[in-house]
Amino acid sequence: RRIVEHWCSQCHAQTGAETNPDRAPTFEQIASRDGRDLRYLRGFLNIDHFPMTTYRLFDHEKDDVAAFIHSLRRR
Question: Is residue 17 domain-resident?
Answer without folding.
Answer: no
